[in-house]
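Intended use. Records like the one below are meant for learning the mapping from a protein sequence to its folded structure. Do not use them to infer anything beyond what is encoded.
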Amino acid sequence: VQLVESGGGLAQPGESLRLSCAVSGFKFEQYDMIWARQAPGKEREWVSRIRWSGGRVWYADNVQGRFTISRDNAKKLLYLQMNSIKPEDTAVYYCGKAKTVYNAYTTIDDYQFFGRGTQVVVSS
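Structure written out for the chain above:
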């Protein structure tokens, strides 16, 4: 299993970034996926989840209305569009896959993370 995150970087408050996660080694179209982030000195927290079909999504309260998760099952890509970013969005962002197929897990512990993440720094 490989999950390779990309798209992070340095941005100013209010700007946008689009993160991508390229996956291989498993049947992406059968798994719910998650974006999570970890800021320095803090635990990893979930940011957004998406059903295997893409038909339903959820967001953490602190990104609701600013971030959009999506997926392209044909291309095996997961995305996170980040708009109106804030300094508190600074973190390493990871994509993760659910532990088993088709299940809609709600806790971050039920997802598996294999990638190195992509660093997002928001600063003026």
